[in-house]
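Need tokens for this chain, all 471 residues.
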Amino acid sequence: MANGRAKARSAYRCGECGWETGKWVGRCAECQAWGSVAEVGVVTAVRAHAGPVSSPAVPIGQVPVEASAFRDSGVPELDRVLGGGLVPGAAILLAGEPGVGKSTLLLEVAAQTARTRRRVLYVTGEESASQVRLRADRTGGVHDELYLAAETDLGAVLSHVEEVRPDLIVVDSVQTIGASEVDGVPGGVTQVKEVAAALVRVAKTRNITTVLVGHVTKDGSIAGPRVLEHVVDVVLHFEGDRNSRFRMLRAMKNRFGPVDEVGCFDLSGDGITTVVDPTGLFVEHHHQQVPGTCVAVSMEGRRPLLAEVQALVTASPIDKPRRTTSGLDSSRVAMVIAVLQQHARLRLHNQDVFASTVGGARLHEPATDLAIAVSLASATYARPAPQGIVAIGEIGLAGELRRVRDLPQRLAEAARLGFSCAVVPSERSGPSGRERDVNGLRVLDVPDVASALHRLGFEAPVNPARELGVG
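Here are the structure tokens for all 471 residues:
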């Protein structure tokens, strides 16, 4: 028949992202990598015909939802990021840098799930079973309902699923599992696509929650083809500084909940624990007021987080002064310095500027601009800002302060932690320079950065606490 004829054609595939094309090109159009496109052989395209269905189509109102209800994972911060817990039949991809604590987190999730009398299968392809057992002994994760298997073959993994019949599967990691009937080495584009597709099919058909661990590349993106992120339901990213015990879990994709939630964890030798109130890790408690510091209030997902910004300004011995940042966006710091020179008469063109955060916090939100400006002014004038002050606001190139999102939540968090005054941008409909009380917190509205520094006493040799009326 004419509609059943097969047409043969050559195919070329990118080894970095899996993008396919009908002709060879020197640069991948998807990931922009040079020299990664290679021929994968002749592909035969066959016109599809109608076939049998797995289940009849029904009205959407008659589809039962009880089987896909959220289940508590036993780790509250993970449930917060997922939107309520683990969903049966969901495929979750967890990515992160080597050594950040992905395996420790998932072993804790597996142990907590097993304690609820739900069976868990933990498949490790990177470590031996005895190595995982040692970690479980150290973190208290040994349980009779937690099954452990060290496998690198897809067929063996599926056999374990048939035998154990778990409610939760953890595969650490998807790049180490290979399918013998598929060409390529484990971790390659073809292998990763087939392994992920097979595990997702098992998760959907058997209603098993499946968690896959994924590697990341040098630039922080998930290794393997981009189709890996498309076939799963949830993509999580686990991040943290090697010099800090603090870890953060972010949702990059979530079909069952929000993608703007963040979970906080503390990683130690005894395992991983949740951090309900992480603000104390990023705010230094000084015995006396010191110049060059100011507290910012950023939003990590839906959670307000207070972090201290520190600045040091010294005379530069070289023609081109240094601008060094840690935990801050260097381009935004450079912009704030330029605005301070132009609109607040701070002379920083011949000064070395160092700006950083406390405790390894990473502040890249524009709402931290005003705190950076206050810390720079405080360091320049060698006078501390008034005690109990937080600064919130985005700075424009004209020196104006712009409103930021979720300002009531930020002010409520500052008031809860005992701060006495907040400097924020003026409302468009309200008068500039007014003072108001929000939950016991004195809020000062200012229109621009020059007015904010003036009210804090950084233009004249006066007592800043007396100028603002606090302290």
